[in-house]
Amino acid sequence: MALEFSPEKKKEVDWTISRYPNKQAAMLPVLHIAQYQFGYISHEVMELVARTLELPVSRVQDVVTFYTMYNKQPVGKYHIQVCHTLACGINGAAQVVKYLEEKCGVKCGEGISKDGKFSIVKAECLGSCGTAPMMQVNDDYYEGLTKSKIDELVNKWKSE
Ligand code: FES
């Protein structure tokens, strides 16, 4: 059976589409709504979005594969995106990734930790260069990262 948006998300999708000159123009926000509901953008989700926007699936696939903000695989409860662009790179992004891998029990780009809590990926500049090194976890930014800050955050998330 084909996937459907939940009634609540369908309302959000309809409202979003109504704010654009045509359905196709609403693709990015509709993909975000889909990602909130399904956790990641599987092929079935792309089909749902394509059906909703009256587009070929290949057009949706082009967009999903271009932007790193869309998860192509299942992610952990805490999906950690570590910026590794210049400012973060020279301020220790590689060490941040290594330390997070140790703390969270999952390698960067290699799926979800055994407890289902964590996934880690590298991200391009997230627009917070002045607070490097930084990461985005789900919808929130964590900046000026240090080992002790990471300890505090990961320990809190592990206990939740
Ligand atoms: S370089 Fe990391 S936020 Fe811009």
H/I helix tally: 7
Largest sheet: spatial strand order:
2-1-3-4
**Head-to-tail CA distance between termini:** 34 Å
Characterize the biggest β-sheet: 4 strands, mixed
Structural class: alpha+beta
Description:
- The chain is of the alpha+beta class and 160 residues long.
- The chain has two domains: 7-66, Arc Repressor Mutant, subunit A; 78-159, Glutaredoxin (3-Layer(aba) Sandwich), CATH 3.40.30.10.
- It has seven helices and four strands.
- The protein has a four-stranded mixed sheet with strand order 2-1-3-4, with helices on one face.
- α3 (43-53) packs across α4 (57-66) and α6 (93-104) packs parallel to α7 (147-159).
- The longest helix is centred in the last third of the chain and has 13 residues, at 147-159.
- The relative contact order is 0.12.
- The mean pLDDT is 97.
- The protein binds FE2/S2 (inorganic) cluster (FES).
- Residues 83, 85-88, 125-129, 132, 134 line the site of FE2/S2 (inorganic) cluster.
